[in-house]
Amino acid sequence: MEIKEFLLPDAVRIDLKVTSKKQALQEMAKTAQALTGANEREILNVLIERERLGTTGVGQGVAIPHGKLGALDQLSAVFARLESPIDFDSIDDEFVDLIFLLLAPLSPEHVHLKALAKISRLLRSKLMCAKLRGSTSADAIYALLVAPTEDDNDA
Q: How far apart are CA 96 and CA 82, in angstroms?
């Protein structure tokens, strides 16, 4: 599975200005609505409900909020680099500045788990995160995110 299968160029937000976890999720839900047509409030509710189960702040300044929506028929993602890091209740207590949101349909297939694993492997790389933080444009960030990696043959 490749990230370009569920992340569109228009889904990359650069230097997003937010001051809280909730505000970040709201802004990303707006972007997801524009891309998918799903209801912004439903998207936000799914994300908040998932955060209640446990933080999606995975450490090293990265969060991967995710959820399932009945309104979707395929995976959809939004990536944001924040202007300033925010408290995301991360497992390592570090503030977050890179957020990769994944939305999946309700279907029983576990394709969303493969996508989450792919995103997690990508953002576990300190080098990749440094490149994402140092990029000067949304196009450059998109190119980094969708570049083929060694595990692209694991589908």
A: 8
